[in-house]
Amino acid sequence: RVLGNLSVWSNLARSSGAKTQRRWQTVPATMKAMVLPTPGPASALELREVEVVPPRPGDVVVKVDACAVAYRDTLDRRGAFPFIQPDAVLGHEMAGTVVAVGSGAESGGLQEGDRVVSVHWDQNEAWPAPLTPSGPVSSFLGLTHPGGYAEFCTAPAGCFVQIPHGWSGSQIHAAPVMSTFGTVWQGAVVRAGLKAGETVLVTGASGGVGSAAVQLCRRIGCKVIAVTSSPSKREFVEGLGADVVVVSESGPTGMDFNRAQQVKDNPPAVVIECTGGPGFQASLRSLRPEGRLVLVGNVDNSFGQLPLGLCILNSLSVIGSDRFVLLPPWNHRTCHGLLTVCVCVCFGLGKHFGKGTTGAIPIPRPRSESSAVCRDGKRTAVAQDPVNVASGERGGSAQFARKPRSVRKDCAGHVVVIRGHVRFKFSGKDHGITDA
């Protein structure tokens, strides 16, 4: 249906030359898209026939196979962010296939036929956040740039990354990985320094990011206390692997799960706060001394009060964190490696990647530090200081499989070099790392 009326953009040869045009596939001149004329309820969305925008230099055109409808989308739709553009096309968690490449886009590693997922904005335009002193970036998918509620999305190549080779899951599975598991990895592991053996409390545990947090923290080897707002969600959250489930409804003063005996008996070292305003006070008061609260969501776009005395006396840290932040210099292999980490840790290579792979996990570090390159014969991931998932110690390796497996033969003998020094050497032996 989509490809029934094919046409070639006549202006491509004039703008980029015939040589570049030959690299582009023919695509439809128009497409269907859900358009939001102005912020409002779901009924404000309109199904329209709109133009498929030709790619500019550095752009790619992605045929959208799946796009998640995230809770964040409902905030965008209602106008939580005043810089949303008129006639916006929402959707920042999409998966699809590259069908056209503008001149220069291939330098990042993407080409026609690649299966990709989105990363919310062009990492080349701004790093590490989409809000700059002069305002939001122009590539903010769903807000300042058309997103995935459409059949095609034309955007800078830096908005996408290739899906790991061997992924046998559908595009529907791949679409939200970066914004759910990626958000948790960035906030809990990178920003808060979560280690195996620590106790983690997750609010909004039945939601998209919350359910990802429960699974990922369990895979890392943490004890997980999950907070949900309804008894009907308890069985689902327990099925994700939570050690303890606390049901806490939000009242006039917010949630009060910090008073639950299970939380008092084992105060968490890290709280992954997915609800924001409703759970913020209880999350902060549940932490043990020197605990870290990672704020990754704000469901009602509210303001919170910070008890300064509690933070001072208990040496608490409040850390704001969004989704994956990629390391400069930006390239698609960097993000490809990070995406592989999320998929491997959460689902296990035995399920989705066949024979399995080993390698160093890329942990983003401050921008000024040098990078290391880890190769396994097929993928290259720019890493900063490899970390061992099982122990939380730097300098180790990790094997992402449900059962211990041997290092791949094409990886044996490879090394990780940082600033001219060998920091890790792959051997041909089984490292023995299991689910954690």
Key features of this structure:
22% strand; 12 helices; 436 residues; alpha/beta; 6-stranded parallel β-sheet; single chain
Write the layout of secondary structure elements.
Blueprint: E1 6-7, H1 12-16, H2 18-21, E2 27-28, E3 30-35, E4 46-51, E5 59-67, H3 71-78, E6 94-101, E7 115-118, E8 131-132, E9 135-136, E10 152-156, E11 160-162, H4 171-174, H5 177-191, E12 199-202, H6 208-220, E13 223-228, H7 234-239, E14 244-247, H8 261-265, E15 270-273, H9 277-286, E16 292-295, H10 308-313, E17 317-320, H11 332-347, H12 349-352, E18 358-359, E19 372-375, E20 380-383, E21 398-399, E22 415-418, E23 421-425
Describe the structure.
- It is a single chain.
- By secondary structure, this protein is of the alpha/beta class.
- The protein is about 20% helix and about 20% strand.
- The chain is built from twelve helices and 23 strands.
- It has helices at about 10-15, 20, 70-80, 170-175, 175-190, 210-220, 235-240, 260-265, 275-285, 310-315, 330-345, 350; strands at about 5, 25-30, 30-35, 45-50, 60-65, 95-100, 115-120, 130, 135, 150-155, 160, 200, 225-230, 245, 270-275, 290-295, 315-320, 360, 370-375, 380-385, 400, 415-420, 420-425.
- A six-stranded parallel sheet has the order 14-13-12-15-16-17, sandwiched between helices. Strands 10-5-6-7-11 form a five-stranded antiparallel sheet.
- Helix 5 crosses helix 6 and helix 5 crosses helix 11.
- The radius of gyration is 22 Å and the shape is globular.
- The model is unreliable at about 1-25, about 325-335, about 350-410 and about 430-435 (pLDDT under 50).
